[in-house]
Amino acid sequence: MSESATISDGMISVEREGDLCVLNWTDGRKEGFHSLWLRDNCQCADCLHPQTRERLFDLMTLDPNSDLIDHLETQNGSLFVTWSDGHQSQFSERWLHEHAYGEDARQARREKPTLWTSEVKNSLPEINYEKVMSGDEGLLSFLDMLCDYGFALIRQTPTRDLEVTRVASRISFLRETNFGREFDVISKPNPNNVAYTALELQSHSDLPNWEVPPGTQFLHCLEFDAEGGESTLVDGFAAARQLQSMSPEDFDLLCQLRIPFRFHDSDWDIRRSATTLALDSFEELEEIRFHSALTAPLDIPSDQVLPFYRAYRALTEIIRKPENILKLKLRPGDLLVFNNRRALHGRAAFDPNTGPRHLQGCYVDNDDVMSKRRVLRRRL
Amino acid sequence: MSESATISDGMISVEREGDLCVLNWTDGRKEGFHSLWLRDNCQCADCLHPQTRERLFDLMTLDPNSDLIDHLETQNGSLFVTWSDGHQSQFSERWLHEHAYGEDARQARREKPTLWTSEVKNSLPEINYEKVMSGDEGLLSFLDMLCDYGFALIRQTPTRDLEVTRVASRISFLRETNFGREFDVISKPNPNNVAYTALELQSHSDLPNWEVPPGTQFLHCLEFDAEGGESTLVDGFAAARQLQSMSPEDFDLLCQLRIPFRFHDSDWDIRRSATTLALDSFEELEEIRFHSALTAPLDIPSDQVLPFYRAYRALTEIIRKPENILKLKLRPGDLLVFNNRRALHGRAAFDPNTGPRHLQGCYVDNDDVMSKRRVLRRRL
Questions:
Q1: Residue B189, SS3 per DSSP
Q2: Looking at beta carbons, which residues of chain B come within 8 Å of A59?
Q3: The pTM is what?
Q4: Closest chain A C-alpha to B122 CA, distance in angstroms
């Protein structure tokens, strides 16, 4: 779970091997850094703006064919480099450790989420409102759960109008969309979205028709006396991995083929083509876009149409398996928070004549969520 | 430039060829639609919500192995299908034409931007403030220029505080970032960003460290009496194509290799890895991320480090060629608007002691820009 490992050993010497400066550590490990990489990342005030921490060094000032290094040495836990043009750089042991890019070092920095099925019900990631609101530590615990599981429940949230905004604003500003900055999920006449009816909503991700669908969704239960209307959550990453093991070619297709999504009403016509699944450079899942309601007529090469439908059916079957679905009947005061790029959400149909069901929601983007988590970790 | 071609010919008959329903048009063209695709896109009120235009039909209700179609015919410019379960669908000639997905039809719907070099100076895409603000037609002309060239100039914009917001709000709500909803580009003490100094800024894209960097940037010149400080723009897509023809392997590497970007100050730590160039499914350029100041120490496989630096240098050389750089000295009242995912911007250094230079800026995301353009086209 940690993004920056703590340093447990020291750097003892450095030697050149071709383009690389190879550091030897007390535990026997070697880490290679390219000379050009080191020059590009000089930490001095002329190369890195002291206030903004932005790079000032201009790579184009170097002769790409010259030997860059004049002298190298390690001393007092730092690497000192004298460049052939006389410029000098110093890199601390800690900084080098945190920025090493050998395969092992890169792997060690990866975050690996905890995938789940309906059994997560027995150990829900949940936390009390007071903890989240009163200090950095509670907020960080909440963010850790959210990042690990893709969702978390905040309990005993005061059922005040727009309290959801106050909680979300602990992290960052809100992500505005065509549905506004905040939205009320109630049964409405003349809805412009199926969410605003009393119909069942199969598990889906919100707004896949945006280039970046909203990251983290906050859904605060203000009133709930209606029959039915249980909330559902499915770990989209777990579902995707199940598909991968059952049918790798379907998984691959859904990672590669962009399909069109669209929302349109009288004021908006927002369209985006994107893959159903997306992987990062470590082949770790980073996104699922899954919402039949907003999937536009497929505008893909004709020979991909039937393979897509086959793969999509296979994924849908997995997503609808009861053992993959976490069912939650939200109570007033529950604030369900989930990563809309990972956790698919839905609800059972409800009967609006049996009582009110009123959720209030908003979004904060995941860049902001992860930024806040990093800043809190730095502070705590 | 058009997203939906007008229909110039009619549909005369339909026949089945395996999984496909093949339509014959009066001009001799044939368009194949898969039966399953047609069923999935039934336009009736049970399958497509009449208000929300969202799909209600559930693909999982079909038996994937059955023959779906009972009967097919064309009549009065529509295709009528009776499905084997008795359900009936009707598709208009126009709708089928707009949604055909044969290779030719897909190609015909592509938008092809006009690439440019510094010579665009002789025919700048520019428009008067009054036109943009007073009617849909002027706004659409402005959006057409912006989408085609990746930038446009609005002249004679009143030099009022936050007028930039009023213009941007003609399109949509603003995209907020860690720099706020609006920002003032002036020389500041203790800047948290190089833009807020008087230093030269090489051509770059803003905020590549966000999952989605801001789409369209609005920069309104309120005051400008300083010496120097000319604005520069480079067509990043044109530069990328120049690289592709000179050195295809460098181009490919920049399309494939994700590199890390980061902004951090006391309140934020926003990181994202992304490719320098990105292509859509037609291999059309859709993005360039280029900002040395926010490029974090490369955290990529070691054997990619030197190839990346080589490719990056080659691209940088092209971007800095004078013949690729449009230079503009903004005057009070000029509002420069550009697609931050395509047009790289910069400025010459200026001397803040010779007079003020004050720009005010904000962002609107490209999803919103394109949505507004579609809605205006529908109306006009």
A1: coil
A2: 292, 309, 312-313, 316
A3: 0.94
A4: 30
